[in-house]
Amino acid sequence: xxxxxxxxxxxxxxxxxxxxxxxxxxxxxxxxxxxxxxxxxxxxxxxxxxxxxxxxxxxxxxxxxxxxxxxxxxxxxxxxxxxxxxxxxxxxxxxxxxxxxxxxxxxxxxxxxxxxxxxxxxxxxxxxxxxxxxxxxxxxxxxxxxxxxxxxxxxxxxxxxxxxxxxxxxxxxxxxxxxxxxxxxxxxxxxxxxxxxxxxxxxxxxxxxxxxxxxxxxxxxxxxxxxxxxxxxxxxxxxxxxxxxxxxxxxxxxxxxxxxxxx
Length: 263
Description:
Layout: E1 10-15, E2 18-20, E3 28-29, E4 32-33, E5 40-42, H1 44-58, E6 62-71, H2 75-85, E7 89-94, H3 106-120, E8 124-128, H4 139-147, E9 151-160, E10 165-171, E11 174-180, E12 185-189, H5 201-207, E13 212-216, H6 248-259
Parallel strand pairs: 1-6, 1-8, 6-7, 7-13, 8-12, 9-12
Antiparallel strand pairs: 2-5, 3-4, 9-10, 10-11
Helix pairs in contact: 2-5, 3-4
């Protein structure tokens, strides 16, 4: 089949998402998160996915790394970051729909990815475990289901020879190791997988010359309408002001008799 390739010919597709920067305090206006005049950045978990893909190429396991995003024209900047980190080319599926779950939701996103994966004949799809805007964590599993591919979520370590793959994944009670005996596969990346590199100035300049293919999401024959409706968006209540205690005995007394957190 098309996926029984030479070891060094693995094609990796990496999903990258433009999100509100992790350091920004979001504002809620008109029952939604206000995105006007706010700093947007590459989703941190997607950054880890890009780093892992580039490392696999540097190890001569992969032959090509393609970065893909779905979003407005400004998402080109997000793709340029991925290209500067080492991706070879990029695909931009353009849409003015909000991608933070308010309008474009994971099922439609995964269907778009399915089309591109099949067109690109990808061997491995690397995604962040979740976007830090919606925190859904659904695109990877849904994509694997649509493709009929094996999947591993929350990857903390990846070892592959280009044909099979062993992945250590995070769980609530430690880690577990899963072996995928035959690629293709979908893997979502967790925080401990790697520490992404900083793009160097020469690579940032090179990224401007790399190819970015653009097409409209609305032209892909996919129903982009949201399946779920968000009824309300509100900010968390402000934290109550803390108190200072004089000594350890007073701290224990308050924890025991007022907070009720120790017996």
